Structures are given as structure tokens and as C-alpha cells.
Amino acid sequence: MNKPADVFDRDAEWTDLTDFARLPLPGLRIAVVYGRRRQGKSYLLRRLTGAVGGLYHLATEQAEPVSLRRFGDSLAGWAGLSAGAFGFGGWEQALRTAVEVMAAPSRSRVSPSMPALLVLDEFPYLAQESPGLPSIVQSLYDSLGPGTGASTASFRLLLCGSAISVMADLLSGTRALRGRAALELRARPFGYRDAREYWRIQDPAVAFAHNAILGGTPGYRELVLDPQVPEDPAQLGGWLTRNVLRPSMPLFDEARRVVHEDPRIRDTAAYSSVLAAVAAGESSPTKIGGLLGRPATSLTHQLATLASAGFIDRRHDLLLDRRPVITVADPMVRFHQLVIEPYLADLEAGRARQVWAEAEHTVESRIFGPHFEALAAEWVARYAPGEAGLAVGPVGQTVIACREHKVSHEIDVLALGRGSRPRSPGTPIAFVGEAKHRDRRPGLAELHRLRHLRDLLTAAGHDAADATLGLFSATEFTDELTVEATASRGKILLATMDDLYRRPS
Q1: Any idea what the Cα angle at residue 418 is, between residues 448 and 504, rounded to 5°?
Q2: Nearest 10 degrees: CA dihedral of 93, 98, 101, 104?
Q3: pLDDT category of residue 237 using cuts at 50, 70 and 90
Q4: Please, what is the average pLDDT of the chain?
Q5: Residues 325 and 397: beta-carbon distance below 8 Å
Q6: Neighbours of 100 (CB within 10 A)
Q7: Cα gap 179→187, rounded to integer Å
Q8: Is the N end or the C end of the chain the one with fewer CB atoms within 10 Å?
Q9: Alpha-carbon span 327 to 383, nearest angstrom
Q10: Rounded Cα gap, residues 38 and 198, in angstroms
Q11: Where is 397: in which H helix or E strand?
Q12: Radius of gyration (Cα) for the chain, nearest Å?
């Protein structure tokens, strides 16, 4: 089943969804799809239901009787009946009726052998008003699913939602739908290369800066006045002041709305304070608590909620068994906390250009720097095996102690060998890299530092003697470093911004 021409990227997601929808097996099968708002989930699912002749129903925040009436009208419209043809007293009756009506061979829109597909989008709205709905779906599955002996024709039920913590929890622990989903798919933002293509940006430097601030969320392109991003890096600030840093623009308050729409985040001030601390660089519960004047133990619930909702990441050290490093997962949330919130009064007074000029150092150090490291790590994990011939396994970061300098050195990009397990004794290390977003060109001094780090790793018992060394730069490299890298026969890798964004011909 070919992907519709108007669906950008999402090849893997389309394949997973069509495989699920067309699975020629009898009985009921369930899929769960979730992801942050504006990732294109609904767009994709509408195209899916259109392709297989299914029913797409978008739930709204309304009382259960209203939701049932709306669903009945959707089912009636799909079946070619008049509105009000179905009256449901509860969701069990509604879903069983949907199975009976949609799975009837005479109702097939494509082929009698094609399973009927029902999509319930924004499922958390329904479950909030009807807390027993997941258990009703479980009961339906247990009576009509595989292994039940039921003679029901093929029926596919897809539950979708934007509240990540709620949707992921449907299949966790002892929840009603645990072990009953044939597909669990999370719609994520576009990768940095796809985001550049989606926004039609030619200059890699502009694409990087744009991605560092807005990320890869496709729906943001529909929220700006000018979707054509300027190709001159010097003009990007002006584009941001017009499209993001104006209180009247949707993206101005997008990050706050996205965070607070999660039903588990109720104390908005407390959660915003935690996000602000993490965005400022505090990376552990102790440091975050110290900045907020609270004990670290009091933040356990808030950090767990933010992590389950996808707003913070907990990055585990690849080599050491220590507490994970906490970072902000969403670039737009990070930008909001570092630029919009601190200068809110000035921005509301219309001084966006002045704010952008004053925040330039913060953007460079707190946004561009960490984002460049993240892109370098993503390149090593996703593209380096095919484009640079690196055989790498898990990719991440670590810290190595140095007695000579009496400090601990952070390694920006570390890759273990293929098939290696993190935090294992004698771990083989395939790649040691450093990524710095700055104007100065890296030279032999940076290479000597990498060699020193490799020696420290070897001395600590890791198999790093043959690891490739890599430097990532937003500009170019010194001539001396380029000559040495060329003579290394592939053991020294140099990558510029152009290399990170260059697609193979």
C-alpha cells in the first residue's frame, strides 16, 4: 500500500500502520499510537483510514453522553445512515456495535478481505470522562481477540492520543491493556536532516540554528506567518522576532501550552521551575533542588512525570554506573525557558529585537552548544556507519577521571563497539569524539586532547586503543589538523556542519 504523496517522510510509520491495518488475521487486534501534538499523527491516521476504508473519529473534551452521541453519529455517517441512527447507553455497547456494523462483509469499502479499521483519536479525552473505558476495551479484546475462538471477522482498533504519559501508561504494569496491543507506535519529531528538507532550508548553518530552537515538529510550519526561512544566518534573528518572539504569534506560548496540557501536570508553577532549572544546565536532582531551594527527594514525582511525558531526558553514562544526566528533551521548551520566560515583560512590550540581541550569548552557550553535541551524536549513531564506515553500537556520553589534571573530562560523543553492552567491564570503544559550536577552528590541540582521553579510557580498563577519534566543528579545521587526519587512514574523523547535513548522492 503506497504512502500518499502528501505525507512527508514517515515511511517507517506508514509501513507499520499499514501492516497492522491489513493483517489478514481473524478477530480483534489493538494498536496504540501516541506522540506530542503537531507531530502529524492525525494527518497520518486520516490518510490511513482513507486508504483502507476505515472510520476515523476525533474525540473532544466533552461529557460522556455527548461523546457517545458524537461517536454514534460518526459510525452512522460511515455506514451511510442518518445522524441519530445509533443511541448508546455506554461505551461497551458503542464499541460492540461498531464491531458488528463495520466488520460485516457487506460494509467493506475496499475489499471483503480487508479488516475493518476504527481509529479513536485523542483517546485520553474519552478515558478522562469514562475512566473505565480501557477496561471495556480489554473486555472486548478478551472476548473477540486471538485465541478466544470467536468467529468475528477481522477488526482493527487503533487508539491515539497526544498525552504521552497517559497513552504510554495504557500498556504498562498491571493496566487493563497490558500485553494486548499488536502495535505500539510513538510519533516523534523529524530528524534534523528531514526537518531541513521539510522547511526547505538550503544553508546547513541556518538549518542547524532553526532546528536548535524549533526542533523537528512538523506542525510548527503551519503556525508561522512566514514559512520561508531566510538563507542568510544573519537574518534568522529577524525571522524569529517576527514569527516566534511576538506575543500574538501561536509559537510564543506553544511550549507552555504543550507542557500544561498533559493531565498529570497540575502544579504549573512547580513544573515550570523544574524545567527552567534543567534548561539552565542543572543536570541532577540535587543540583535542581539546590537551585529551587528544595530537597532532591521532593522532586522525584515531578521529574518522573516530566520524563514520562517526554519533556526531559535522562541520559545514562555509557561506561559508569552513576545517576543519569537530566536534560530538556524539546528544543522549543528549552528556548521558551531560556529566552521567552526571562524576557517576558520586554517581549510583551514589543522589544523582541533588543531581547534577541541580549540573549545571543545564552542562545550560543545553552542552546547551540548542547544541540550541536546532540546532532553529532545522532550523526554517529544513524549516519556514520554508512557515510564514514564506522562500526558503532550504543552512542552516548561519559566522564573520565584524570589524575594528571586533577579533573574529570567530559566526552561529548562516545560510541561502543557493535554488540557491546553499556557499563560492562572491558567495554570495547569504537569512537571518541568532541563537538564544539564556536567560531574558532579546531586544530592539533583538540586532537591531542582526544588522544589523551583515549589513553585515559585504556588505562581505566576499557578497550579503546583502536578507537577512531572524531572532531565536529561548526566551521572548518586548521590545515595542520586536516593534513594529519588525511594521513591517519580513517582513524581521525573530521566533520563540519556541511558533513552532518550532507545526504549521500
Answers
A1: 75
A2: -120
A3: very high
A4: 92
A5: yes
A6: 13
A7: 20
A8: C
A9: 23
A10: 14
A11: strand 395-402
A12: 26
CATH 3.40.50.300 describes domain 11-186: yes
pLDDT tens-digit series, residues 281-291: 898 999 999 98
Q: Find out whether 77 and 100 touch, Cβ atoms under 8 Å.
A: no
C-alpha to C-alpha distance for 31 and 173, rounded to whole angstroms = 17
Residue type, 299: L
**Dihedral angle over CA of 352, 191, 223, 128, nearest 10:** -110
373-408 pLDDT, tens digit each: 999 999 999 999 999 999 999 999 999 999 888 889
pTM of the shown model: 0.92
C-alpha distances in Å from residue 264, one per residue of 13, 168, 261, 308, 494: 27, 13, 9, 10, 45
Residue 7 has which C-alpha cell?
505525507
Say which amino acid occupies 128.
Q
Task: Report d(CA 299, CA 291) in Å as an integer.
Answer: 12
Cα separation, 328 vs 318, in Å, equals 19
The H or E element spanning position 409 is strand 407-416
Task: List the Cα angle 275/279/280 in 5-degree steps.
Answer: 120
Q: Residue 469, SS3? A: strand
Q: What gap in Å lies between CA 16 and CA 185, rounded to an integer?
A: 8
CATH of domain 374-501: 3.40.1350.10
What pLDDT score was predicted for residue 129? Answer: 93
With CA atoms as reference, report the closest residue to 116 among 55, 168, 174. 55
Helix boundaries (H) for 37-153: 41-52, 64-79, 91-102, 123-129, 133-144
In terms of residues, how long is the chain? 505
State whether residue 183 is helix, strand or coil: strand
Please name the residues in contact with 379: beta carbons below 8 A apart, sequence gap of 6 or more. 472, 495, 499, 500
Query: Domain map of the chain by residue range?
Result: 11-186, 192-243, 254-358, 374-501
pLDDT of residue 438: 86
**Smallest Cα–Cα separation from 54: which of 159, 156, 185?**
156
Grid coordinates in use for 440? 574558532
C-alpha cell at 104: 460485516
The residues, ordered by sequence, that sit 6+ positions from 291 with a Cβ below 8 Å of its Cβ are: 277, 280, 282
Question: Which residue pairs, CB below 8 angstroms and at least 24 apart, start in 191-199?
Answer: 191/216, 191/378, 191/382, 192/216, 192/375, 192/378, 192/500, 192/501, 193/501, 193/503, 194/8, 194/9, 196/501, 198/8, 198/9, 199/227, 199/229
Burial 174-192 (b: 16+ CB within 10 A, else e): eebbeebbbbebbbebbbb
